Amino acid sequence: MKILLINPPVDKIIEPLHDSPEYMHVGLAHLYSSLKKFTNTNVSFIDCKFLKKDKNWLLNKIKNTKPDIVGFTAKTLEIDNVLYLCKEIKKICPCKIIIGGPHATGDFEYIIKNENVDFVGISEFETGFIMLINALIENKSDFSHINSLVWKKNNKIIKNRVLSCEKKHIGRVLWEDFPKASKYYIMAIRGCPQRCIFCMRVLGNIPFYREINEVIDEIEIIYKVNPQALIEFGDETFTLNSEYITKLKDELKKRNLIYGKKGFIASTRIDKLNLDIIKKLKSAGFKKLIVGIESGDKHILELCKKDIDIKKALKVSKYIRQSGILLECNFMVGLPGENFLSIIKTALIASRLRANSISVSIACPYPGTELYKMCKKNKYGLKLISSDYIDFNNELGNALEHENFSRKSLEIAQLFIYIFSYLGSLRFKEFLVFCHDYRKEAISYLKHFFKKDLLK
Ligand code: B12
Ligand code: SF4
What is the pTM of this model? Predict the structure, then answer.
């Protein structure tokens, strides 16, 4: 049985960082590795974005290789593009099609209703996929025993129980099977116990810690494939558990993987950092930490269930700067409770945190989140302004506005925070460095910013 896993191509490069990335899709890399280990199938993985391949190339490839199962991953903004590809694939290849990933987890009905889709996988899906393949190999027509699967029986949609994957099925990614990349994302911990209203938590609320040895084996293999690789931990909250970090640091040291490499990057919550953990991360070779602050307004942070204390965040950011680790802070505008004053507060905090880089996005109500439900009910003056999923993107999207805050005002607020975070703390040189480092993204951003006005 031939299985083809696909990270779909983009029609047009709008956000170069993500549409034409230097890294491969971690979720599909995990699925590939588990299917290879636990099934007797011929599995392959094509990351069209990483390989810079377009839809014609992909369709040709499918026509020539005739896989039995095609599996697409899809974020919300790419789901319609993927459904279009499914239609084209069914014309040229009599395969089964399964879709998984973030959109499938948040809005499986939208996908399974499509006549060209056979199955949908919800949340993490290593175990579900292995069970599905075994059922297909045995020619079964009943799939009700398969974890986290959505399927159709006599045109009726059936959603099975959503269960966590079996521990043994989440193994080491076989990075050595893929082309060399300059950047790799790896996952040590899956899931996040917090409840932020804008976050999907595709991998659930219960943290699952991978075996330290396996994570470090993965790092070792990546460095064998490319000794100059940059490695980022994609975990939602990397420093959830300080003991885990200590063990990780010790194992990295033991295997001499800390020095001489490019250094690691990780994302975490600022309230899961303290002086001790920062020192550990520094000695483990971490060069950059990314944290979500989201807003400088206490009321908004409460409404969003972000659960962080701004004063403590300022203190921790100082420790990070003193340690020599670079700090990136993420902010969001357009959250419930946003007003003129809260924007000013966010800009002030962004400047006081003195982060080396920042990212300011506009809140995006991804289906399956509490924010989406709030928008649907027009709570706190929130409004969904598009039902077209291509607009569901935090950076350059067009999905949400407020009763008293038009989309354009949110975009102006976003630009204002970007600029004020540097110039408000008189960091002119750092601002120029930031503009230089992210020049391609800045051009896309400015094009998007002025596009609607120019079209008028
Ligand atoms: C790390 C990460 C990134 C990394 C990329 C990592 C990578 N190389 O793949 C970076 C920082 C670059 C990134 C960028 C973006 N991200 Co991101 N990211 C994440 C994060 C924190 C973890 C994802 C991850 O790697 N998980 C680990 C792997 C093992 O899990 P997984 O990918 O989900 O795959 C599992 C299942 O989903 C499922 N599955 C996945 N694909 C498939 C396919 C099939 C066929 C099946 C059956 C199952 C299946 O099985 C997999 C194994 O269990 C999630 C949050 C989260 N909890 O998911 C957000 C998240 C996925 N990102 C999100 C977004 C929006 C983006 C951006 C668009 C940001 C932006 N510009 O606004 C970009 C888009 C990049 C792109 N073009 O793909 C959203 C997606 C929401 C949505 N509904 O679309 C999330 C959910 C965060 C959120 N807002 O809640 N991201
Ligand atoms: S802390 Fe981060 S990963 Fe966890 S729910 Fe909040 S935004 Fe999502």
Answer: 0.96
